[in-house]
Design brief:
404 residues; alpha/beta; Rossmann fold; 16 helices; 41% helix
């Protein structure tokens, strides 16, 4: 049974009790009228910009709980979890819940900034989109009671947006997920700028903290997702079953994902095959992962490639994350698994063609981008030797620590 997500629920909350103390919400959150994190950010900003005053809004009740409602493909999910990270840094004592596509719940569960993750289908949340203004009692019981709802699912004027606005105790913020025309800021910056602007009437401190995080996110993006022991164990078991033992992969495992949701975003498969040959000749251990779309599109070619290296066809999400966590480096197109690998902390080389990496580049502590200017002519300017050289540079880097 799905439990109530509101901060008033009684009993022992195992998800919160298992949280690191640095992120655990206070059992008496009303005791502090002003958040210490806000004070620190305000002081830093005031020193840097003495003409700007950041004043506390002590007369306003603090925000104790936030619901993030999101949707989209895997890459969108990973990038939008940076919003949870920004809210966590702005409101370290708040309880943060995430509601999104059921298939991405395991990703949200591994985000240190999320206390609870639920799927839209599990809640039958399609009812949010029904005509009318009333919200069914059981759905209102699950989603009501949050001080702040941040909606990236639907427009504020549509029925779902209006219902979410009515469920929020203090305020609801909606942001447009599509990038603005002719704007080259990273998409996360565009989202956070919208949230910061709308948060200002709710809490000037929250707005200032989100704005500060947005300004430094690209340069300081760290590991977003922490792996479970079971993820690492399952990935290791799969590698052992494929006869890639610990000695063979230590410092040499290169995870390769040749697919993407859009075929025009894919570096040609024959180039990936040549890359695998080069990496193997250099004593590295390439492991190729392919999802159902890639297996349907290139089944024969990928299985032929699997004869020259390890191929995992449509691995479970936990295995994919575990493989990224143990890999020495990762290379792939502008695709969900590439964003996932970067967020896990894998040294990542992202190959871009038609999409703009200034807007869509993966965020992580060790991400490099190689963009083709000739992607419409079979990516002629991106040779396997060039990619192999970049991968070799990446695999020598030390991996950053995961968040605790």
């Amino acid at each position: 049974m799905i439990g109530r997500l509101t901060p008033e629920c009684g009993g022992r909350d195992t998800a919160l009790d298992a949280m690191p103390s640095a992120h655990r919400p206070s059992r008496n959150p009303g005791a502090d009228s002003e958040n210490a994190g806000f004070r620190m950010i305000r002081d830093v900003l005031t020193l840097a910009h003495p003409t700007v005053l950041y004043t506390a809004v002590s007369s306003v009740e603090p925000i104790h709980s936030v619901l993030l409602v999101q949707s989209g493909a895997m890459g969108d999910c990973v990038l939008q979890l940076r919003i949870a990270e920004a809210i966590r840094r702005a409101l370290p004592s708040a309880r943060i819940a995430w509601l999104g596509r059921d298939e991405w719940v395991p990703i949200a569960q591994r985000c240190a900034s999320v206390d609870k993750a639920l799927g839209l289908d599990a809640l039958a949340a399609h009812r949010l989109f029904q005509p009318g203004t009333e919200t069914e009692a059981d759905l209102a019981d699950k989603l009501g009671g949050f001080d702040l709802i941040i909606n990236g699912l639907t427009g504020p004027a549509l029925p779902a947006g209006a219902r979410l606005r009515g469920l929020a105790r203090r305020a609801a913020i909606s942001y447009e997920t599509k990038p603005r025309d002719h704007v080259t800021l990273h998409i996360c910056r565009q989202w956070l700028d919208q949230i910061s602007a709308q948060a200002r009437p709710v809490s000037s401190e929250l707005a200032a903290a989100v704005e500060h995080h947005a300004a430094s996110l690209e340069a300081q993006a760290g590991v977003l997702l922490r792996m479970l022991a079971s993820d690492l164990c399952e990935a290791s078991m799969r590698l052992l079953a494929a006869r890639v033992d610990a000695n063979n992969r230590a410092g040499r495992l290169i995870l390769v994902h040749p697919g993407s949701g859009g075929p025009n975003k894919c570096w040609p498969l024959d180039r990936y095959a040549a890359l695998v040959e080069i990496l193997s000749a250099r004593g590295l251990t390439p492991v190729v992962v392919a999802g159902p779309a890639e297996m349907e599109r290139w089944d024969k070619q990928l299985r032929a490639l699997g004869g020259r290296c390890v191929l995992f066809a449509d691995p479970p999400l936990s295995v994919l994350m575990g493989l990224a966590a143990v890999a020495t480096a990762y290379v792939g197109n502008d695709a969900g698994p590439t964003h996932l690998a970067a967020a896990v902390g894998a040294p990542t080389l992202a190959l871009f063609g038609p999409t703009d990496p200034r807007v869509w580049r993966p965020l992580g502590p060790a991400v490099k981008v190689l963009r083709s200017a000739e992607h419409e002519r079979d990516w002629q300017d991106v040779a396997p030797e060039t990619v192999a050289a970049r991968v070799s540079e990446l695999h020598r880097q030390d991996r950053p620590a995961s968040p605790r």
